[in-house]
Amino acid sequence: MSSSKLRWKSDFDKQCIIHNFEKRGWSRCTSDDDWNIYWANVWNVKQIFNPDTGHRLGETQLLNHFPNHYELTRKDLMVKNIKRYKKDMEKENNPIASKDKEGNYVYLDIIPITYILPGDYTLFVEEFRKNKNAMWIMKPCGRAQGKGIFLVNKLNQLKKWATCSKLPFQTLSLKESYVISKYVENPLLIGGRKFDLRLYVLVTSYRPLKVWYYNIGFARFCNEKYTADIAELDNMTIHLTNVAIQKQSEEYNDKHGGKWNTNNLRFYLEMTHGKTLTDKCFEDIYNIITVSLKSVTSVMINDKHCFECYGYDILIDDDLKPCLIEVNASPSLTATSEGDRVLKMGLLNDVFNIVAPNDWLDDSSKHGSNTCKERSVGSFSLLLDESGGEDRGKKNNKKTGGTALWR
Amino acid sequence: MNKSRTPIHSGTFKKAVKDELVKKKDINEDLNSLIPKIMNNHNLDTQIKNKVQEIMEKNRYFKDNITVAKNQFKDCVDCSFLPAFYKEKDFEPLESVANAKKIWNEQIKYKANVVARTVRKPFISAKAKGGKDVPEVPPIDLKEVDDPSCMFIFDQNTLFDSVLKVNSINYAGVMNLTWGSVKLQLQTMSVKEMRKKFNELNVTLRQIGVDDEKSFIDERLLQGDKLLSKDFRPLLINYARRGVPPSLRCRVYKKIFNIEMNPRDYEYYKSLNDHFSKWDLCIDDICNFDTNEVINDEKYFIFQDFIVQVTNLFFRDTWVLENMRSKPHATLTAIIGLDKEVGPFPPNGVLPCKHFSKFVCPFCYISTSPEDIYFIFRAFYAKYICQLHSLNSDSQGIIGLCKLFEDLLQTYEPEVFYYLNQMGINPLKTAFPWIFNMFIGYLEVSELFLLFDRIIGFDTVEIIPILAAAIFVYRSTLIANCTSQEEFEELFYDLSQIKVIPLLQHFLFLAS
């Protein structure tokens, strides 16, 4: 709990945020520029950093988004940055780009095959023709909560989209760009249901990269049993795990909200798949987070006033191999159950403890969001810290000194 | 009916001996020395040892005079001169408990009829096929039932009341020996006996659940693998005492419970499913209705389908009736017409308590295969869970467990106990749900399994009230500072942060 009185501002009327600020004894402020810490929505952040409308942030101001966070959080830009990073790493023969015997990337294979439409349309068609039975998933780049997503298994379904402005499934504007990814048809099923993981990652600086990993995440389950049956291609409650979609299902239960703690998931996987596979799965997840962040370090504007708490969406297939679905800049802070409320309260509490520790306002040598020197705060542990030249992957005993691998 | 384990094939063994003899040109080798060698090669000696251990276990190692005598006089033609316990099944030596059991059985029978009336179905009925036959009475919406007590046969409160009612007939009541609410003066373990019995939990020995650093876990994994390949059950049971690493639990539990999962077992599971599709038990409805509440728990909701399936099949399995260590109540007999006896109702001899499916929940973590889950749960119930619901004078019956809890609390923290009594608070009332439910729904799943490991390893449920007492003793200062019932209840509202093994170790070996 901070002893100094900070002024806070929030664009969201959420219990987790307001309660966290209030219990610290910080005071609310509504003015445009007199705040110390601002939990803003992305539109307002855009205005702040807009050269015409914005203003320079003061020494004692903290903002919860990086100016160009969309390099990571927009689906098309993320894909572009990861592809670019892969090429760069390979060109300079960095060990991170190493491949295994079958020619697959060991570390850099973090997303399924993805193309940006309409630009990469021809490339996509070439890939599509290689395996005509595969399913692909179309996602609009700029939207959230599962809106506008649909599955495709025939080229003519796309051709219709390309030529007319009204889709059988929903209306959309042609100006919007989409990404199309190879659909993971064999997700890991538990209790017959598909799920994905929501993990929280805090970044307080991009250059040098400093990443905090929240130890408690949750798995979001579909309410209906999974089937890859073509007849059910349109049934989004089977395929999409977004809470907004699942809430529409009859089976939705608000006692648990379809969310399962990752600790329980890990325990279950250890019991049923063994320790080695489970540990490898989680190591791969840490790798996904690290690689995705490293791929944007060069393009991110590293404003010291900024920090960002991302919501990572990760899908695990039935070989226990995880892949990245997307990174959310504004993960939902609405609590869907009691357990969820406790989690999100704790998350924000720890975020504020990291970015605005007790002596932050008083100590004039400390500025910006990246002042915390601890290895772990609350349920956050330091996943990656490139500032001291030393590198610590989580639970990683095998790293031998050199930063060469993780450049 | 599932006959117990695969018999050692004498035919194949003879053949093996013959083959060896044919192979060996040198027939000088004595058959006497050849046979043990062949047995070893085919792992038959371990199988025989395991079988012997199984028989010993089933007969409680013949420690009990009654079991010994029963075996001696097994083939006796005329048993009229023998004492009562030969003729009565589930004989209860203490008169007061026997009376309580009689009353309890009556209650159960009454409630079973109430439930059948509530769901408007006979105990067992054939299921309508293909929906062509319109049922005479439309299925009733169980949410509309007025009186909630019609929806279950017994729950933890009714059992709790029955436990407290059991009186000592020959108790003069002059001296107040114990402060607890259990009136029956059963003898319970002393602290010294406890320490001896649970010696493997000593602080001097490393445990899974306390010392979970990589080197120790690797060591346990190695040892576990070796023991699994050796296949000798008593060693595995001993191994479980210090905790089983999560990745080995499925295999270790299966070996300890003698579950082989050969084609015959899968067939048996399928036959239970067939029974389910053909016959409707009136308790199916209340169980399934109950399960909807059980799966509100965020730890278990994903396994809903498995839980429902396992629960439904469980009540159709006659194996349970034959292999239960103790019967929670007298078996009801299903009758057609006026007097034609059909068989036990339900087929497994046990009627469900409220939220019965809760007991199935944790086992869904143990394997992805429903058959594994089913057989492991069934074995666990037959050995341990049934005792938690049985009114008898056994030290592992529910009365004995309650008495143990109270005696431990009084021994370790007499001031706290006295203080609670002054305030009119009964500590057993708080601890009873924990004991009745085996802490399911209160502890985190990983901690639950640490507890199960020890229950299996020490082959006793006494560790459950010991844990309950340990929790009380651990929070004794906080209890002493309570000034009201509400404050007291708040202290024990949330057990999700409890770490079972350090607590037990501290309680057994460090607390004075």
UniProtKB/TrEMBL annotation, chain A:
Keywords: ATP-binding, Cell projection, Cilium, Cytoplasm, Cytoskeleton, Ligase, Microtubule, Nucleotide-binding. Gene3D superfamilies: ATP-grasp fold, B domain (3.30.470.20). It is found in: Cytoplasm, Cytoskeleton, Cilium basal body. Residues 386-407 are annotated as: Disordered. The keyword Protein biosynthesis does not apply. One of its GO terms (molecular function) is tubulin-glutamic acid ligase activity. InterPro entries: TTL/TTLL_fam. One of its GO terms (biological process) is microtubule cytoskeleton organization. This is Tubulin polyglutamylase TTLL1. The lineage of its organism: Eukaryota, Sar, Alveolata, Ciliophora, Intramacronucleata.
Automatic annotation (TrEMBL), chain B:
InterPro entries: Rab-GAP-TBC_dom, Rab-GAP_TBC_sf, TBC1D19. Pfam families: RabGAP-TBC. Residues 243-459 form the Rab-GAP TBC domain. This is Rab-GAP TBC domain-containing protein. It comes from Euplotes crassus.
